[in-house]
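FOLDING PROBLEM:
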Amino acid sequence: MNVLVVDVGGTHVKILATGQTEKREFDSGPKLTARQMVSKVKRLAQGWRYDAVSIGYPGPVMHGRVVGEPHNLGSGWVGFDFRAAFGCPVRVINDAAMQALGSFRGGKLLFLGLGTGLGTALIVDGVVEPMEIGHLPYLKHTYEYYVSDHALEHKGKKKWRKHVKDVVTRLTRALEPDEVVIGGGNVSHLKSLPPHCRAGDNANAFTGGFRLWDNADAAGSGRARRTRKKARKKARKKAHNTAGKTGKKKGGHT
């Protein structure tokens, strides 16, 4: 199965398809709507073959559906029919969860994405649990307020790094993960990583998007096997009934 992965961010939308080595991207921003995103992605992906789409969305997602409008993009995301718009199966997941899935190696993983905002996700034995910790109260505002792009730009790197270290420490103590991955575009601004942390890579978002469909081929093969088995059973039953009727007919003439 060929998959098109769409990583939607507050400043850029990045895409990559199965078999491709170079991502493509375009600017997003506070006016980008869901419909505009799909239209631009389809144009940008011309020439690439794909049977399904994975979307990493910068906001809350439940059961594969967007349940909250994004803070850094336009409107019209909640209730939007991505499957109909792309014309193929689509799986939507929180963007931090998608990058976390691509970073996962086992055990219990806490992912913190430092970018336009603060993306958070927890993976326990392969089960992904997206979270919205960034919007919880912290000091005089929220966690996200102190470790976001805005804080980095207006408070300076020194204060930003101090708050990042404190936030990582607090969340690590509360959630007790085996490992912490700090990803997002701003991880490069850290001089060093806190203990038991490793740096993520934005490319892991694409890995996570591909992994969303890892079982699809197996499931499809399973369905195909069941269909073939059902067809054979139906054919045998039909042949048996036909043979029975023919035998009765021959018996009537003897």
